[in-house]
Each structure stands twice: as C-alpha cells, then as structure tokens.
Amino acid sequence: MTLSAMSIWLGAALALAHGVALLNPSLARQWIRSFPRSRIAAWILTAVDVAWVAFLLYDANVELIHRVRWIIPYLAPVAYVMIIFCMNELLAPRALGGLLLLLPAPMLDAARWHASPWRLVIILLAYLWVVEGGILVLSPYRFRRWLAGWVANDGRCRLGGALGLGFGVVLVLLGFSLY
Q1: CA nearest 53: which of 33, 76, 37, 32?
Q2: Is the pLDDT of residue 1 over 90?
C-alpha cells in the first residue's frame, strides 16, 4: 500500500471514530466506558489479531517456521478459543493493544522510502501506537485511566472528538496532497 492510501485510510478511520464523539458525546462516553468489558469487541478484535498473526507466521520466510507452516491454519482457531476462554479479563483493551502493535508494520513499510519529510507524521503515529499497544497489552486497566478525563462530561468528549477528527482530516489531506 502506498503512503498516500495508508494516510487516507488512517485519516478516514480516525475521523469517523472521533466524529461520533463530536456529534454524539453521550453515546461515545457510554461506549468507551463499556469497551473494556465488552465481549463482542473483545472477540472481534482478538479474531483480527489472531488472523493477522497467523498470516504473518504463515508468510514468514524463516526456516524454523517454514517446516511447521502447514499447522498454522489449524493452530490459529485453537489459539483464538484459548485466548477467549482463558484470558477473558479485560480482553478488549488487550486486543486493541495487539492491534496497535500490528498496525505500525504496514504504516512503516509505506513510509520507509517516501521522499517527503511529512512521512514523519505517519512514522511518529506508528511509534506512538507501538508504545500504547505495548502498555495496553501489559496493563489493560490503563485504558480507563487514560480516557477517564476525556469521558468525564460531554464538553471534554466533544473536545477529544474535535481533536481526533481534526487529526484525521489532516491525515486525509496529507494523503491527497503531499504523499
């Protein structure tokens, strides 16, 4: 994927997610508060994470993995079920952290050889997501702590939504104009 397409997709996703907080802060606050214990969100995000990791392992050109690669499609569903049943405590923030650890790889691949110095916006975002993802995987309770100030009332939630929406629009504009 090109850096332009990556920036447009990331910006659109961020703008959409934060637009909800701007337009309907009570719904966003309710969703953010219920997210850490949400089974549906946990199952969906965990499925994405496990499928992505299984694909990366299957596609890896490493001799040790290459010899046992035939078993990866069978182990992935087993790993998914084990994660769902054995690690169900605050699984949604952990799975979100896993996704934040996986997303930077294609972001950095897209930005690696691009000539524009504005590629550093995507690179910085990728590294911030790696740090956030690692913290969420290890300490999922921090999700509530980080967002407690933003969901305290409708005004703060709208402010967070406006900032996120603005950053998303900037990414879309960078994708269309500079990348």
Answers
A1: 76
A2: no
Contacts of 100 (CB under 8 A, 6+ apart): 129, 130, 132, 133, 136
For 176, the token pair is 């269309």
* Domain residue extents for the chain: 3-36+90-177
Q: Whole-angstrom Cα distance, residue 71 to residue 78? A: 11
To which residue do tokens 């990728």 refer?
Answer: 126
How buried is residue 96: exposed, middle or buried, by Cβ count under 10 Å (0-12/13-18/19+)? buried
Reported as a single tens digit per residue, the pLDDT across 105-117 is 999 999 998 888 9
